[in-house]
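A reminder from the course coordinator: this example appears on the midterm review sheet, so study it carefully.

Given structure:
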């Protein structure tokens, strides 16, 4: 289950923030990135605690680390406030201005992500490293195809290097600086929007260095395209035990990034336990609103601390049979919904019935009653 033998990098562990090990013997950790600006928390405590609640929700889904963009000083100030209350280690994503990193380090930020290719001269990198060393904060060196050094870009254009080779070379140069500064608490990420380039550069790097790798396909796309690309890349890398921490980059919610990463890690054998949700795709025999039920329940189920399989089936004819492997399942037809455990029906649910109820009222009543019954049976497991 563990990743390739690498050094360990530790983040978090201060105050209410959990401690996360990246690399070493630790399981592969899951990251996501916040999708919105955060400056409102500087002036609005309600906005701050709304973000904290959402971070707690991400944690319950299986997220280990959350990263925030820090484009200006007000965002840096806001992130310090968030980090003070966050249950998850908070990462500051810094570009162009090293002073933003120094400002974030005044708070409880657990890791700094910098792209040395756009942070300025080496002196700026040294200032960030020195401050992180003093505070015991880790760094992620981020290298992307869009921010390669000029000389490497020229070699790529001249076809003297592949882009994967150039990414490895750029990462190696930055790692050498950190090693010269006697700083080993850092992670490397090399990201491309191409699956092949992502796999190639991480494989090449892992063959040469013991530095933990954060893997991901950058700008992977919307939900479907992004999950497809990430699954292909991660599967290839993880089967060779390459990758200490992952992010599924989606043009979608952080919650879906976490759930997608969690499922990939489960299917590649890198994570076990938790709720396994299976559901049929639905067809013309459909008698139960599979899509509606899974939409309502997916995040609730994924947040449960239970090692169970839940089956959501579309028709009562095949539901209990096809879902007999499940600890609990639900299906139905017409105005009847059934709940089953290990293939045996345990509850039959029907809508409330009054003379003046419309068809929609009955449907709403059926859904409500089914949700109540399902939760009762679920909690009894």
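Designed residues:
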């Amino acid at each position: 289950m563990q990743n390739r033998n690498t050094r360990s990098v530790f983040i978090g562990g201060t105050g209410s923030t959990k401690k996360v090990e990246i690399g070493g013997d630790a399981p592969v950790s899951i990251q996501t990135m916040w999708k919105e600006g955060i400056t409102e928390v500087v002036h609005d405590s309600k906005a701050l605690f709304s973000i904290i609640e959402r971070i707690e929700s991400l944690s319950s889904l299986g997220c280990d680390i959350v990263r925030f963009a820090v484009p200006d000083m007000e965002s840096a100030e806001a992130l310090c406030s968030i980090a003070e209350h966050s249950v998850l280690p908070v990462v500051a994503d810094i570009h162009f201005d090293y002073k933003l990193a120094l400002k974030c380090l005044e708070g409880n930020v657990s890791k700094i992500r910098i792209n040395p290719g756009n942070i300025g001269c080496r002196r700026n990198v040294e200032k960030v490293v020195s401050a992180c060393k003093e505070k015991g904060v880790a760094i992620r060196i981020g290298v992307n195809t869009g921010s390669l050094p000029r000389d490497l870009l020229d070699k790529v254009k001249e076809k003297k290097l592949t882009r994967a080779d150039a990414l490895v070379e750029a990462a190696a140069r930055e790692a050498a600086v950190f090693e010269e500064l006697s700083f080993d608490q850092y992670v490397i990420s090399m990201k491309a929007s191409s699956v092949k380039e992502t796999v190639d550069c991480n494989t090449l790097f892992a063959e040469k260095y013991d530095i933990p790798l954060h893997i991901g396909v950058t700008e992977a796309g919307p939900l479907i395209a992004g999950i497809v690309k990430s699954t292909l890349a991660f599967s290839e890398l993880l089967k060779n035990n390459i990758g200490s921490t992952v992010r599924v980059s989606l043009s979608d919610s952080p919650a879906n990034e976490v759930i997608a990463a969690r499922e990939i890690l489960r299917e590649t054998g890198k994570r076990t336990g938790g709720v396994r949700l299976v559901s049929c795709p639905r067809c013309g025999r459909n008698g139960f609103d599979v899509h509606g039920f899974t939409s309502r329940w997916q995040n609730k189920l994924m947040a449960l601390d239970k090692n169970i399989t839940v089956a959501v089936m579309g028709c009562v004819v095949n539901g209990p049979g096809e879902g007999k492997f499940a600890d609990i399942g639900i299906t139905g037809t017409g105005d009847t919904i059934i709940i089953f455990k290990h293939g045996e029906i345990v509850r039959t649910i029907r809508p409330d019935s009054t003379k003046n109820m419309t068809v929609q009222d009955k449907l709403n009543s059926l859904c409500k009653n089914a949700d109540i019954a399902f939760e009762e049976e679920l909690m009894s497991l």
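The first strand starts at residue 8 and ends at 12. The chain has twelve helices and 15 strands.
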